[in-house]
Amino acid sequence: MSGRQLGLPLGTPAHFAAADFLPADCNAAALAWLDCGEVWPEGRLALWGDAGVGKSHALHRWAERAGAAVLSGPALRGIPALPDRAAAIDDADFATDPAALLHLMNTLREARRPLLLAGRAAPAHWPMSLPDLGSRLRATTAVRLETADDGLLRALLARLFHQRQLAVPEPVQAYLLARLPRDCGTLREAAARLDHASLAAGRAIDRTLAAMIAGEIEIEREAAVAG
Predict the structure, then answer these.
(1) Contact 166, 136 (CB under 8 A)
(2) CA 84 to CA 79: how far, in whole Å?
């Protein structure tokens, strides 16, 4: 199975507005570090944790508030165009051009501009071939985002339905939380699919519709694991 987060067929774009980020115990340590970017050692910080815990949203939250450029690790190639401001690199652990990542890190450090990285593991464990890059990654302060707790998942699902102006009874929401994988990305996908299915069927979201969508997601995840 690939280490990348599962992409589900509907392909709903993720929205990472800072105002939509929900603080909770599971991300409190990360938020404390993000809110003091001026004192990051070496001017760098790395967020890490499992898929779906909110790394990308936290990264975009910081970038929006700091006026930072958001870059993609896998998209870095050659000598990347250097931002004239702070930068955030999502999926930095999947960077396929270590020299480009090293160049960006060095240049931002020399310019005294903060750099935020995000990946599935702590940067000391990223599979980078360049010794100098490995040394800098090991020296980067890393903070983990823990798995979302029940309170955060309930609040997130309720907010997702509210944003889509969907009236979903609390027992149906509780049913979904019991059936779906415990990650924020899947909840966003489920809310989008339920919105689409409700419109297509011309009916309100009830337990039957919720069971259908939860079953689809479960089948697709099992197929992804088997494949």
Answers:
(1) no
(2) 15
Q: Which residues contact 28 (CB under 8 A, 6 or more apart)?
A: none
Nearest to 37, CA basis, from 86, 71, 85: 86
The tokens for 158 are 């309720």
Per-residue pLDDT of the chain (227 residues; tens, 9 = 90+): 333 333 344 444 556 776 678 888 888 899 999 988 778 999 999 999 988 888 999 999 999 999 999 999 999 988 767 778 899 999 999 999 999 999 999 999 999 999 999 999 999 999 998 999 999 999 999 999 988 888 889 988 999 999 899 999 999 999 999 999 888 888 989 999 999 999 999 999 999 999 999 999 999 988 887 76
Give first-to-last CA distance, the chain, whole Å.
7
Give pTM, 2 decimals.
Answer: 0.74
* Residue 66 identity: A
Tell which residue, 143, 117, 134, 156, has the closest CA to residue 49.
Answer: 143
Nearest to 176 by CA among 219, 220, 212, 134: 212
Query: Rounded to 5 degrees, what are φ and ψ at 201?
Result: -90, -15
Phi, psi of 98 (to 5 degrees): -55, -35
Q: Specify whether the backbone of 87 is left (phi greater than 0), alpha (psi in -120 to 50) or beta.
A: beta
Kindly provide the b/e burial profile for residues 63-81, where b requires at least 16 CB atoms within 10 angstroms of the residue's own CB.
Answer: bbebebbbbebeebeeebe
Q: How far apart are CA 180 and CA 218, in angstroms?
A: 8
| Tokens coding 36 | 């003091």
Tell me the two tokens of residue 220: 């697709």
